[in-house]
């Protein structure tokens, strides 16, 4: 009698146990204070890191902050470094569908078994710090802090040759900032998260610039002049080198292409012409240029050009899920994670540059703590009509309230309120079809909106 059925049964039981344990771990992590209510302290994370032997110091780090473009730029840098043959860790947030997306090894989400093992490995040290903190009347470690600890532990254990790490929020007090980046990347800074970071662009920049560490190279995307001054001041203080877009690197050519765009970039050390990038929008071209400069800064101090064939191969395979991404055809349905006025402006420009819809319908759900009116006003010229709905987050604005605001901006005749997201997508598709084959749908307003629509339409790859 063959032992095969028994072996299959054992494997099925093992997989079931892993799924069960994974749910338990995720629930335990989610039970902690959420990432949008961080505590302004690095003390707890630093204490756990010390107890673990400072795993974040065992690999070089490329550290990224900014208001918009962070995740795409992180993915550009990681993808190019991996194409060069380096073993990579990537940390991004928030996730679209699965918490494990945040921690990636060589471009793939950490597998369930390793995620569980990493959690089990760090938990005793986390509990020690939690106990100490609570005895002093302070909170436990947050959801985000624990994930940062897990990421750095997993990267050290792998081990990786380099970690590309996106901040969660700000810079100064962000949990990721217990690591010292060899390269600090600052994508464009604008107004967002005012409750936590400050009401002015200067206050926000003061927080974000603190990822620049002594001796680092700071790669800086396009900024408001006042922000540039604050970054230069910080770099001088810590004796870091600053390289800026439009000065030391730039996009020199950009043309729309089928499935994306063809760009040319002047980097820190080389000229890279006719690069195909399968992403839409001028803002993505600038994200790619910033990513290329960051890779040059990391591998050769900004003095060695990259191999163009390696660069072409990496960029051709680049993905940025939820960022102006086509998730269905007939009619075309796109999703975009724009969630603040600057992000929406970039989205509007990208729609004008990259698409020629005869009729475009918006599906909108926006968090109530955002500058909703400014976002609606920026989107008004883009859409023929909008369908207002609700995503799966408790932070989403009530559809009736959002619909009333939208009616003030778009006019009542251009606004439909449909609280159920799936029905909202269906209604938007019907309205788009009135434009014939040139009709389209764009779902936006939040990372959660983009993620929810992706999932409803059967797209969960990241």
UniProtKB/TrEMBL annotation:
Domain called Mur ligase C-terminal: residue spans: 322-446
Domain Mur ligase central residues, every copy: 65-295
Names of required cofactors: Mg(2+)
Entry's EC annotation: 6.3.2.17
InterPro entries: Folylpolyglutamate_synth, Folylpolyglutamate_synth_CS, Mur-like_cat_sf, Mur_ligase_C, Mur_ligase_C_dom_sf, Mur_ligase_cen
Record-stated family: Belongs to the folylpolyglutamate synthase family.
Protein name per Swiss-Prot or TrEMBL: tetrahydrofolate synthase
GO molecular function: ATP binding; dihydrofolate synthase activity; metal ion binding; tetrahydrofolylpolyglutamate synthase activity
Pfam families: Mur_ligase_C, Mur_ligase_M
Highest taxon of source: Bacteria
Reaction equations catalysed: (6S)-5,6,7,8-tetrahydrofolyl-(gamma-L-Glu)(n) + L-glutamate + ATP = (6S)-5,6,7,8-tetrahydrofolyl-(gamma-L-Glu)(n+1) + ADP + phosphate + H(+)
Keywords linked to the UniProt accession: ATP-binding, Ligase, Magnesium, Metal-binding, Nucleotide-binding
GO CC, alphabetical: cytoplasm
């Amino acid at each position: 009698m063959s032992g095969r059925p028994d072996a299959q049964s054992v494997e099925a039981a093992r997989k079931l146990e892993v799924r069960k344990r994974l749910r338990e771990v995720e629930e335990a992590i989610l039970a902690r204070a959420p990432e949008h209510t961080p505590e302004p302290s690095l003390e707890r994370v630093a204490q756990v890191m010390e107890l673990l032997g400072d795993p974040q110091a065992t690999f070089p780090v490329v550290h990224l902050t900014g208001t918009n473009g962070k995740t795409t730029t992180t993915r550009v840098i990681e993808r190019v470094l991996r194409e060069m043959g380096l073993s990579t860790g990537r940390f991004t947030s928030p996730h679209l569908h699965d918490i494990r997306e945040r921690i990636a090894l060589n471009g793939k989400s950490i597998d369930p078994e390793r995620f569980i093992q990493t959690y089990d490995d760090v938990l005793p040290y986390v509990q020690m710090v939690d106990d100490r903190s609570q005895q002093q009347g302070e909170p436990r470690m947050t959801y985000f802090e624990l994930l940062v600890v897990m990421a750095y532990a997993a990267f050290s254990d792998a081990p990786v040759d380099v970690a590309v790490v996106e901040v969660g929020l700000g810079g100064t007090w962000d949990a990721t900032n217990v690591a010292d980046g060899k390269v600090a990347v600052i994508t464009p800074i604008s107004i967002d998260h005012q409750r936590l970071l400050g009401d002015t662009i200067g206050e926000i920049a003061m927080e974000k610039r603190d990822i620049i560490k002594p001796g680092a190279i700071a790669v800086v995307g396009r900024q408001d002049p006042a922000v540039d001054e604050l970054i230069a001041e910080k770099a001088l203080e810590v004796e870091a080198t600053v390289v800026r877009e439009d000065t030391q690197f730039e996009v020199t050519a950009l043309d729309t292409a089928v499935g994306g765009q063809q760009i040319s970039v002047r980097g820190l050390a080389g000229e890279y012409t006719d690069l195909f990038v399968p992403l839409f929008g001028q803002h993505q071209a600038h994200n790619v240029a910033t990513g290329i400069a960051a890779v040059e800064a990391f591998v050769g101090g900004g003095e060695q050009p990259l191999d163009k064939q390696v660069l072409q191969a990496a960029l051709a395979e680049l993905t940025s899920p939820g960022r102006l991404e086509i998730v269905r055809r007939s009619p075309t349905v796109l999703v975009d994670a724009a969630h603040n006025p600057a992000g929406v402006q970039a989205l509007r420009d990208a729609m004008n540059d990259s698409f020629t819809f005869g009729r475009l319908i918006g599906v909108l759900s926006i968090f109530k703590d955002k500058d909703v009116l400014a976002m609606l006003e920026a989107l008004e010229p883009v859409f023929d009509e909008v369908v207002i709905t609700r995503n799966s987050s408790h932070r989403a604005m009530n559809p009736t309230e959002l619909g009333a605001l939208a009616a003030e901006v778009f006019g009542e005749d251009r606004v439909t309120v449909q609280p159920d997201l799936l029905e909202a997508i269906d209604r938007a598709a019907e309205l788009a079809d009135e434009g014939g084959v040139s009709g389209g749908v764009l779902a936006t307003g939040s990372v959660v909106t983009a993620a929810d629509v992706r999932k409803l339409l059967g797209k969960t790859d990241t």
